[in-house]
Design brief:
The protein has a single domain, classed as Rossmann fold (3-Layer(aba) Sandwich), CATH 3.40.50. Helix content is 35%, strand content 21%. The chain contains nine helices and nine strands. The strands form two sheets. The protein has a seven-stranded mixed beta sheet with strand order 4-3-2-5-6-9-7, sandwiched between helices. Strands 1-8 form a two-stranded antiparallel ribbon. Strand 3, helix 4 and strand 4 form a beta-alpha-beta unit. The structure holds S-adenosylmethionine. S-adenosylmethionine binds next to helix 1, helix 3 and strand 3.
């Protein structure tokens, strides 16, 4: 297939429609899927925000999950894997009633909507029941390899969209803390590869390769993601006593 310069996509919906044009959006190794399954646990009612083509959601217990994604092709792929997926833009709110989910999880999604987190976090809080769990897994900006290969305008950017910088874990911790949630934060290494490799032209990939490979080797033992598991206070009283 011919390459398609990332700059030609008008929005992330178009980009991810392209990235999901094969059978699978990302190929994860079994160990990584198991790690994610252990983190998200086995909720009865779970919302997968930015569900992609549902590969992760389908691996988790407690299915069928509900998923939303801006890319129609991703949502279709997720439905084929048993996720009840709808097309929606999370920066415009969440189309669900209050307190209906036991768990809300965002895996590799929040860095795509930087800086629209201010609107999304209260929305997640609204749809999550009291005592429910909010899980975030994102590329970790404290890992230099991850930070430099995702930074906007970086000469060694491998991230397909120019504005999807890795996130500093403290930025997420501050936000869940402000909601009164308790949380744990830990590094996690996830091995997943985009299956559509033709986003950047071959010459660009060849030019970047020596630098990208050298950095990848240098930081090979540094986890590439962080995982934040936050718990919504079980009662309104505990919410005010946390603040
Ligand atoms: C890196 S992929 C992660 C997919 C899946 N969570 C996974 O880990 O395999 C990011 C996903 O977020 C979706 N996305 C990006 N911006 C979005 C938005 N504003 N609203 C909803 N989904 C969005 C993309 O379409 C894509 O499926």
């Amino acid at each position: 297939m011919n390459s398609q310069l990332p700059e030609t996509f008008q929005n992330q919906g178009q980009l991810f429609d392209f990235l999901a044009s094969g059978d699978t959006l990302y190929e994860y190794d079994r160990e990584s899927l198991d790690k994610l399954a252990a983190i998200v646990a086995s909720p009865d009612a779970a919302l997968d925000i930015g569900c992609g083509d549902g590969v992760i959601g389908a691996h988790l217990a407690g299915t069928p999950h509900i998923g939303i994604d801006i890319s129609p092709r991703c949502a279709m792929g997720a439905r084929k894997r048993g996720i009840l997926a709808a097309v929606a833009d999370i920066s415009e709110g969440l189309p669900f009633d209050d307190g209906v989910f036991d768990t809300v999880y965002c895996i590799d999604v929040l860095h795509h909507i930087t800086p629209h987190w201010d609107a999304l976090f209260p929305e997640i809080d609204r749809v999550l029941r009291r005592g429910g769990t909010f899980v975030i897994v994102e590329p970790d900006a404290t890992n230099p390899f991850v930070r430099l290969t995702q930074a906007p305008d970086s000469p060694i950017r491998v991230a397909p969209w120019n504005d999807e910088p890795a996130i500093h874990p403290n930025d997420m911790a501050t936000r869940v803390k402000a909601l009164g949630y308790s949380y744990t934060l830990q590094p996690i290494d996830i091995s997943g590869a985009q299956t559509q490799r033709n986003v950047f032209p071959l010459w660009q990939r060849l030019l970047k390769a020596p630098f990208v490979l050298a950095l990848a080797y240098r930081y090979r033992n540094t986890p590439n993601k962080f995982c934040l598991i936050a718990t919504k206070p079980p009662s309104a009283e505990s919410l005010s006593s946390n603040s």
